[in-house]
Specification:
Number of strands: 13
Helix content: 25-40%
CATH architecture of the largest domain: 3-Layer(aba) Sandwich
Distance between the termini: 21 Å
CATH topology of the largest domain: Rossmann fold
Bound molecules: magnesium ion
CATH class of the largest domain: Alpha Beta
Order of helices and strands: HHHEHEHEEHHEEHEEHEHEEHEEHHHHH
Strand content: 5-15%
Number of domains: 2
Length: 464
């Protein structure tokens, strides 16, 4: 992405996406002004996938480092809005990549959630969002690990796969705490079936696991009612933002598992519009509308949140907007931060909002009349110049948050096949080259066990 990542790129004209892409999901950069108009006077909450969203997909997963420009853009956003990274990676890995202690992190596809820790702040002088308005104080029990009891199972699975995949050159297995990822991007295509067979056998041998396919990766997770959509719901609830009409969540992601968050937001949006219509507001498309038939965001900007699909080509998705690649994501985040730091954004002027408070130095952001008027001290300075590595997990397991209104049955609702053995979301069928070239079902393994066959079907139909 190179040139797109510099400050100069932020001002460069954006390429026009293909017409088919615009019809499915309007490009968010093309319609930034419309988005900004819909977000004015409201608090934007930003949720970001990592691989393929903040960074390009690379051959070596360990080399997916965050560029300084992207880190600066995310840091600037975190000074203004609650900002979270929601990744399939182990949380400590993604924290190490991002190195911004101001953020909220949800690793293992949302199964390992923490907020900015007091320990980190004390040690590193980090800025932290600590306030969300007088009527909605943030929860002090934000950390959540719904798959904690699965840790030994995932340890054993990782150990098994490390052995079983050894005969397949360049197949790698990554332990992501509550999920295990098998990467086949560097494997000769003639061996992809062998990779799928190994994974299928391992899943079949361990009750309660399910497998799905991402971008040249097979993901194995506990079959629990939790996904990235539930993680977003948890974070909004824990921050006291779930029922605030002046909050606009935005989730940006590129892969199949991000669809769970897109869908949760789309359902939330549809429920809000139905309520609005019932109260005499403008009628809206029914909640059952397919993604392709949903109204263009240019004419109907989101009122309760939206997903943003990162993709260079149109594909079925529950997202409302699109960005082409991590380069465009960076440009969008930079524009959003610049807009959010001006009085034009108006979010700090909302009656219910006292703004976000930065813990370090008592520097308050937002809701200050002088700031809203563009007075001294506005926009606020960057919280700090350096970020340290992530600290060890301090997550605990408080009670599960209430299920979001309009949400589907989590993973078990729309994602699992009727067999219940772990097939991924049927929404995940896409045209991405990473997906269409994934391992084909392995006949021998399918004959060995029905569960194995189900898992392979997941690979064939579920990924991007
Ligand atoms: Mg991704």
């Amino acid at each position: 992405m190179g040139a797109r990542q510099g400050a100069a790129a932020a001002a460069a004209p954006m390429p026009t996406p293909p017409l088919s892409s615009q019809r499915l999901y309007p490009n968010l950069l093309d319609h930034f002004d419309a988005f900004a108009a819909s977000a004015a006077g409201r608090r934007v909450a930003i949720f970001l996938d990592y691989d393929g969203t903040l960074t390009p997909i690379v051959r070596d997963p360990a080399a997916a480092t965050l560029s300084p420009a992207a880190r600066a853009a995310v840091r600037a956003l975190a000074c203004l809005f609650p900002t979270a990274v929601v990744s399939g990676r182990a949380r400590d890995k993604v924290e190490e990549f991002v190195r911004l202690p101001q953020l909220y992190y949800a690793g293992s596809h949302g199964m390992d959630i923490v907020g900015p820790s007091e320990k980190k702040e004390a040690e590193e002088g980090a800025a932290r969002v600590v306030g969300a308005g007088p009527a909605s104080p943030p929860s002090q029990s934000l950390a959540f690990r719904p798959a904690e009891q699965w840790a030994p199972v995932m340890d054993a699975l990782h150990a098994r796969l490390a052995v079983d995949l050894k005969p397949i050159p360049r197949a790698t297995v990554e332990h992501n705490t509550f999920c295990v990822s098998v990467h086949y991007r560097n494997v000769d295509p003639s061996r992809w079936d062998d990779v799928a067979a190994v994974v299928t056998d391992a899943v079949a041998a361990t009750p309660g696991l399910r497998a799905s396919r991402g971008r040249k990766v097979l993901e194995i997770k506990p079959e629990i009612d939790w996904d990235k959509g539930r993680a977003v719901a948890h974070l909004l609830a824990a921050l006291g933002l779930a029922e605030c009409d002046d909050v606009l969540p935005l989730y940006i992601g590129d892969d199949t598992t991000d669809e769970d968050a897109f869908k949760w937001l789309a359902d939330r949006e549809a429920a809000a519009r139905e309520r609005e219509a019932g109260e005499g507001g403008a009628p809206d498309a029914p909640s059952s509308a397919s993604p392709a038939s949903r109204p263009c965001a240019l004419t109907q900007p989101p009122v309760r949140g939206a997903g943003v699909l990162v993709s260079t080509r149109p594909k079925p998705s529950a997202a409302a907007w699109s960005l082409r690649d991590p380069g465009e994501v960076l440009v969008f985040l930079s524009r959003l931060a610049a807009w959010g730091a001006t009085p034009a954004s108006g979010w700090h002027a909302a009656p219910a909002c006292t703004g976000w408070t930065l813990a370090a130095g008592d520097a308050r952001v937002g809701s200050l009349p002088a700031a809203a008027a563009g007075g001294a001290g506005w926009p606020p300075p960057s919280p700090r110049a350096s970020e340290g590595p992530a600290s060890p997990s301090t997550a605990s397991a408080p009670g599960r948050p209430p299920r979001p209104p309009g949400g589907r049955g989590g993973v078990g609702g729309g994602s699992r096949a009727a067999s219940g053995s772990g097939a991924p979301s049927p929404r995940g069928g896409t045209t991405d080259s990473d997906a269409t070239s994934a391992p084909a079902p392995a006949a021998a393994a399918a004959a060995a066990a029905a569960a194995a066959a189900s898992a392979l079907g997941a690979f064939a139909a579920g990924g991007r």
